[in-house]
Amino acid sequence: MAKKRTPEEGAKKVNNPNVMGLRPEVLEQPITETLELNYMPYAMSVIVSRAIPEIDGFKPSHRKLLYTMYQMHLLGGNRTKSANVVGQTMKLNPHGDAAIYDTMVRLSRGYGALLHPLVDSKGNFGKVYSRDMAWAASRYTEVRLDPICAELFRDIDQDTVDFVDNYDGSMKEPTLLPTTFPNVLVSANQGIAVGMASNLCGFNLGEVCDATAAFLKNPNVNLMEYLKAPDFPTGGELLYDEAALKQIYDTGRGSFQVRARWRYLKSENLIEVYEIPYTTTVEAIMDKVAELIKAGKIKEIADMRDETDLNGLKITIDLKRGTDPDKLMAKLFKSTTLQDACSCNFNILIAGMPRVMGVGAILEEWTAWRMDGVRRRTYHVMKKKQEKLHLLKGLKKILLDIDRAIKIIRETEEDAEVVPNLMIGFGIDNIQAEYVADIKLRNINKEYILKRIEEVAGLEEEIADLQDIVNNPGRIKKIISQELSAVKKKFAAPRRTEIIYDYQAAGALEEEDETPDYAVHVFCSKEGYFKKITPQSLRMSSEQKYKEGDGPYLYWEGSNRDMLLVFTDKQQCYKAPLSEFDDAKASVLGDFLPTKLGMDPGESFVWACLTSDYSGHILFFFENGKVARVEVAAYQTQTKRKKLTGAYSDKSPLAAALHIKEDLEVAVTSTEGRCLVFHTAALTPKTTRSTQGVNVMTLKPKWKVESARPLADTTIVNAARYRARSLPVAGALLKEEDRGEEQISLL
Asked: Which pLDDT band holds residue 517 (cuts at 50, 70, 90)?
């Protein structure tokens, strides 16, 4: 193998003649040596000093900007012009004002790229979800540090982190910021270096604090129990894929799907998209939709426009008559970035070396670094107290003979001999003697000296406690946990990105076109046996079969494409299209709903209803006399989930339920034998499924609501006797003629 040449040996002189004479001498160098000597230092500089974040969650440009603002007293102070901050930051960051201002924009509240913005901004800072919305120049905008930055700089002056010289050695700057929470997991960060990149998605601050506290107690904890999924400032819906997320949590690499949130306004026949994936922009979505329309792949859209204003993002899509909004959105999710993949690459600098780590490894590195910071802070405070204790011990010796100390000072002829004479006279060291010599004349009274000496015992206890903290990792972890709890209590916010556990892939709705549409008769027994029978079959045999002790309960006429909503005693709602049930005959028992729908163990069927378009309302009558009126649309989900929790209030057992398309009079009876008739127009509709409702019937402690039925379906003759003028009321006792032959049934 040939011996490797040095650059000096590898370079050779070349003289090239030209018309004007001879050119200057040119050095030739092998490309491998050029890369090694020139390109590699540049590549390492980009990786270590520019593009990859460190364990505190910041790149150098972020850290320099925030520390400059901290030094300018912009934490808790008034805002200042952005141009002022940019100019000051150039003392630490020589990359130019444009690059610094771009960094500030990304950290700002106005831009909205972070779940917890670090810069409190005023003015136009653009928007993360817009490609074309430019931010104003730095001379027009104003900034200050957001209150959460107090957690980034806490105890920075107590030796928690190292400081180094800036580029010209004129001032010091921190190598890291002593964040009291894992900001590296909270603040999204993206960077492209040379030969590698980093892409950190953000997580909810409250979940991160909980996960870190649990990790401190048990490093083997299942983090997915606490850290549910990533969270984004632009909201949207995250399609939960446990395997994909587990891969990201374990390895730091992977991807998951996020899609837009939208609503359909039936009255105006349009769709409003109000949250989009973090990885795309409004303009990119509209450009792609326009391309699809031009290519003839989408024909349902009449018009599309960006109506984003001060209230936030909004893309409005006008639909052509007869368009199914669910099917259209399924197409758009499949063909545009309204549903987009978010890739993760958790590449972080650890001790100057890039490492791709999972969430557990990141928390391990962060807790180790944070424990060292708390230990350094505690040691710094302890050393200060030890120095003070040392001075007070010297003062204590002076207390034994104040007059003698005064005499020594008075009889010393030269100023330089005062300290040595006090050291000799009282057996104290140079530092203690300097402290005694500098005491003011008015403070040499016994009262002052005794008060100072009384601090000695307290200081000794504090120092012992601080020393124990320094030596005890368990106590340091407890301190970190307490700080995390305080951060969560003060700054945590609800998730912005909704986690969708049960969902259908984009385009699955198109399969509904193949569902046959025909009329059916639907029967449901008291115990939950369900039958779907065609009119032809019912004409041949109409006598229904039931188990012993069971009987008829609910009956509907509908279509095979209708949706069945089944409610259980666990306040859950199971949704199933009628097309999923086989056509049956009257002579069979039918499908047992708890088994067919896969209900939880011990869960029982309570009531059900049928809907084709989620119109109308459901009235829930509770045993405590309250009634909740909930829109059927509240049970409609874009993801076609089959199971909804919190289907109705759990504050009182359900006595009855009614599905109404229009307002009518309802008769409610209690176990006391009282009856109340009221009009449902008196009840305000709610979109919250678990609302407790309003009080309609006042009951004595031992009585409860027994049943509720439309007045037209009852045997009540004298309705005026029971009709309420105002709610709530106790109702009137039922007369014999109003009871009929049978007592009103449960539902």
From this structure: confident
The b-or-e profile of 436-465 (16+ CB within 10 A means b, else e) is bbeeeeeebeeeebeebeeeeeebeebbee
Handedness of CA 414, 420, 424, 427 (dihedral sign): positive
Gap between the Cα atoms of 316 and 269, Å rounded: 11
Catalytic residue among 39, 42, 140, 555: 140
Q: Percent of the chain having pLDDT more than 90?
A: 61
- Of 179, 227, 171, 204, the residue nearest 58 (C-alpha): 179
- Reported as a pLDDT band with limits 50, 70 and 90, residue 505 is low
Residue from 541, 649, 644 nearest 585 by CA: 541
The structure tokens 């600098």 sit at 349
Helices (H), 218-269: 242-251
3-class DSSP string for 517-579: CCEEEEEEECCCEEEEECHHHHHHCCCCCCCCCCCEEEEEEEECCCEEEEEECCCEEEEEEHH
Query: For the chain, what is the mean pLDDT?
Result: 88
Residues 204-235 pLDDT 10s: 999 999 999 999 999 999 999 999 999 999 99
Amino acid 453: pLDDT = 78
Beta-carbon contacts of 339 under 8 Å, excluding residues fewer than 6 positions away, are 239, 257, 258, 259, 260, 277, 333, 506
Distance between CA 385 and CA 456 in Å, rounded?
Answer: 10
pTM of full prediction above 0.85: no
Task: Tell me the per-residue pLDDT of 227-283, one tens digit each, with 9 for 90 and over.
Answer: 999 999 999 999 999 999 999 999 999 999 999 999 999 999 999 999 999 999 999
Q: Which tokens sit at 427? A: 């057996």
Is 140 known to be catalytic?
yes
Question: What is the rounded end-to-end Cα distance, in angstroms, of the chain?
Answer: 94
**Is residue 269 a contact partner of residue 263, using CB atoms and an 8 Å limit?**
no
Rounded CA Rg of the chain:
38
Q: Are 115 and 85 in contact (CB under 8 A)?
A: no
Q: Which helix (H) or strand (E) holds 411?
A: helix 402-411
Beta strand 237-239 with 498-500 is: parallel
Does 704 score more than 50 pLDDT? yes
Nearest to 560 by CA among 588, 522, 594: 522
What CA–CA distance (Å, rounded) separates 296 from 290?
10
Is residue 742 very low, low, confident or very high in pLDDT (cuts 50, 70, 90)?
Answer: very low
- DSSP SS3 for 395: helix
Cβ atoms 100, 89 nearer than 8 A = yes
Tell me the per-residue pLDDT of 594-649, one tens digit each, with 9 for 90 and over: 999 999 998 999 999 999 889 899 999 999 999 999 999 889 887 777 889 999 99
Please report, as a single letter, which amino acid is at residue 537. S
Q: Which residue has tokens 């027009």? A: 140
Tell me if residue 369 falls in helix, strand or coil: helix
Q: At what angle do helices 430-437 and 418-426 cross, to 10 degrees?
A: 110
Quote the CA–CA distance of 722 and 6 in Å, as a whole number. Answer: 106
What is the Cα–Cα distance from 512 to 516, expressed in whole angstroms?
A: 9
Q: What is the pLDDT of residue 17?
A: 47
Nearest to 459 by CA among 379, 375, 395, 387: 387
